[in-house]
Amino acid sequence: MNDTFLKALRGEETDYTPVWIMRQAGRYLKEYREVREGVDFLTLCKTPELAAKVSIQPVDILGVDAAILFSDILIPVEAMGMRLEFSEKHGPALSEPIRSRALLEKLIVPDPDDDLAFVPDTVRLLKSQLKVPLIGFSGAPFTLATYMIEGGSSKNFLFTKKIMYQNHGIWSGLMDKICDTVTAYLRSQIKAGADVVQLFDSWAGVLSPDDYRKYALPYVKRIIKELKNDGAPVIYFVNGCAGLLKDVKTSGAQATGIDWRVDMGEAVRKLGKNMVIQGNLDPCALLLSKDDLRGKVKDILDKARPAKGHIFNLGHGILPEIPAENARALVELVHELSEKG
Amino acid sequence: MNDTFLKALRGEETDYTPVWIMRQAGRYLKEYREVREGVDFLTLCKTPELAAKVSIQPVDILGVDAAILFSDILIPVEAMGMRLEFSEKHGPALSEPIRSRALLEKLIVPDPDDDLAFVPDTVRLLKSQLKVPLIGFSGAPFTLATYMIEGGSSKNFLFTKKIMYQNHGIWSGLMDKICDTVTAYLRSQIKAGADVVQLFDSWAGVLSPDDYRKYALPYVKRIIKELKNDGAPVIYFVNGCAGLLKDVKTSGAQATGIDWRVDMGEAVRKLGKNMVIQGNLDPCALLLSKDDLRGKVKDILDKARPAKGHIFNLGHGILPEIPAENARALVELVHELSEKG
């Protein structure tokens, strides 16, 4: 078992900087596209053998130091009682978005070991096959709430902010149900064998720092506190974090994942010496020549050195347009440039 | 003439904090929608009488302390030789996006007083009618380049970054032509009477700080330097600025416009005491009750106090869904809460 990733998460000395890539199981890999040819996206998420297969692909192909469960952040939302559909063109769509007390009350807190049994099943299958640690995950509460209120992706998040600002009862009721769901969901992944869990706050960056502190962060803290004795460290990824780091620092997570729109040196200073940091190469930087990429990777590694620990990653998910060999080159570069002695 | 806005821009003492609203001439106003009923968007931009009419509407209706020329950031791009179309649904579309040397070479640097004569004409018409200062504007070079390379809006800006990273010749050739165009365009607006000009860098926030410093900021500096002796202060608005402020500080502009995803107190600290700051209420905060809005406005006013000067604004354009009376309430609140003595 390669435990470099877990050591870095604990702030221990490692032989090199571990690296994994957000959305590493994905369309940029021809092996993934081959699996997807025979099956739609949601079926892939819900079929343990196939989900495990694509989760392992990037470990074999790229040589990353951790695997992540293949799934979608909206899977538990569907189990809460919303109808979920995916289209290639428009992304996810949830019908009957939650904008009223009546719809909120119809939502349930699912039992993950029953309603979402395919997820712990996938985790167990993966654990029996993997030689690297496994990351479980969930969407963070604010991010899940945006999808549930908007009914999909959004540009201005007007419906979300309308509820947030104008109807505190619905907002906190929704966030309570989401928190209970996410906590139980992550706990079931940990119980099934996930070594680490990551909370994805993909949309936290659309909030002002003041609103983030008021409407999003408290629920993240609650979940992380609940999971304190479950034995798996938490990575809290915040997309668009540059203006939020002072608050993100207090989340209680063992590690913070940051996007590329903030300087790694500044992030380390703001998150402090007791935080492990994950990130933060621009996903588009994988378009660079290997020489230019080398400079960017070295810069991030150098700037992350004062942190308690560093896990290299992109600042957001890898794009379908990136050649797989460039992703492999990144993993090699990180290992090569960070090797000690 | 109400010169509070100009005084604040010079860092002089004012009786209250001046306020204007980005996209204040827009669809949230029924008076604007009435004008738009008879004419499409581009024709409105290009008809001085109508453009002047909608520019003045928010001054009369909301009581803002400055007017801004009604136009679109892609107007000079069309004059450079690209075909521009607008659809309600998909926004702007530019045909034959610039991704080759051949297409780059076909672009011209237009003569604004000839090819874009309707713009200085609108400025002159406005100046003869306005009792508040007039802001002229242009898109900033990086932002214009994204539209020209993507052919419209984008999610990941992959084409832009591809050129930026892989073809320095095309990138710098394009940025040179854009800089020459923007400089001449803003100069023609100033000559026609614009009191102030604003550069909109709506997409700068998709760059890492390192890339911003390398691929975007130098061109902004060049334009601001060129305009140094033209007699109008420059406001440089950077959307998604939280991670870029240390660099934005060096732009040479008299004022920096900031979005809402950064704390005003932090922005003031990072931009330093010699910078006038414009911003930075979340456009969605106009959904708040007047009491809750009061708290947010007061917080921003308080935190902006140590800056050289403060111009209140939203952190981005006002949304079509906002009731006009809420915009008027904001202007009143800013005036009331900032009044001295």
Question: Top keywords for this entry?
Answer:
homodimer; 341 residues; alpha/beta; TIM Barrel; seven-stranded parallel beta sheet; two-stranded antiparallel ribbon; 48% helix; 13% strand
Describe the structure.
2 copies of one chain form a homodimer. Chain A has helices spanning 4-10, 30-37, 41-46, 48-62, 75-79, 101-106, 112-115, 118-127, 141-150, 158-166, 168-192, 209-226, 245-248, 264-271, 290-304, 324-338; strands at 67-68, 84-87, 91-94, 134-139, 196-201, 234-238, 255-258, 276-281, 309-314. By secondary structure, chain A is of the alpha/beta class. Chain A is globular, with a radius of gyration of 19 Å. The A-B interface holds A 156-158, 161-162, 165-166, 205-211, 240, 242-244, 246, 260-263, 266, 282-285, 287-289, 292, 296, 299, 315, 319, 321 and B 156-158, 161-162, 165-166, 205-211, 240, 242-244, 246, 260-263, 266, 282-285, 287-289, 292, 296, 299, 315, 319, 321.
